[in-house]
Amino acid sequence: MPFIGVGIHVLIALYFAVHAVRSGQQMYWLFVLFSFPLLGSVVYFLAIYLPNSRLEHGARRAVAAAARTLDPGRELREARAAFEYTPTAQNQMRLAQAQLEAGAASDAAATYDACLSGAFGNDLEIRRGAARANLACGRVAEAIAHLEFIARTDSGFRAEEVALLRAQALGASGRKDEAKAAFEDALKRFGSFNVRAEYAIWAMSVGDTSMATMLRPELERVMQRWSRHNRELNADMIRRLKSGYATGTER
Known about the structure:
The structure is a single chain. By secondary structure, the protein is an all-alpha fold. It has three domains: 1-50; 60-157, Serine Threonine Protein Phosphatase 5, Tetratricopeptide repeat (Alpha Horseshoe), CATH 1.25.40.10; 163-251. It has helices at residues 2-22, 28-35, 39-49, 54-70, 74-85, 89-101, 105-116, 124-136, 140-153, 159-172, 176-189, 193-205, 209-224, 228-233, 235-250. It starts with a helix and ends with a helix. The longest helix is centred in the N-terminal third of the chain and has 21 residues, at 2-22. Helix 12 (193-205) packs antiparallel against helix 13 (209-224).
């Protein structure tokens, strides 16, 4: 029986080690995983794997979608009121995120910039939010600068999202070859539906119909397995994909 326990630990640790390498985590995680029986895997799961997993992302998106449906402006109102009453850095960050989620990207970018001008100038979560906001309002150079700062500081921080945002930002800046290389790298490293879908949408936007066509079967295979709930959560992505492929067909 002890041998079975050791074998299971090795398999679990090996699985997380592969994840660590593929997602660009710091190499000390390999030491942690193989040096501390079971505990290393538990720590990695809670610290790295779960926060970046589709399960947690899906749960957060479901809760957020339900809240927006019941009262679309509630979080923005509450965040603004909280910051006006107590203008702390934490409330300012909350306001920036609420502005971004409400579609006020320019306001969010300005609020994130204000956050970064203080003691939290090196905070990677704020940098990530600033990159998203700047990209959404067309300030592509600023978005790329924030993403490059994150990559230099911690290459494992939200690795998939940062890689995808960078590819999108490069595409929005017109740097086609660099964008294609960035999408290819993200697809190779993560292979997720989101990466594949955004790659296809971008490919159609620049007339690369052969790449979009190559990506399409896997996208359709995944969507066919989705439940109604998953389709509702990803309604915007589905709409953008259909629009992209329809536009590509017309070219």
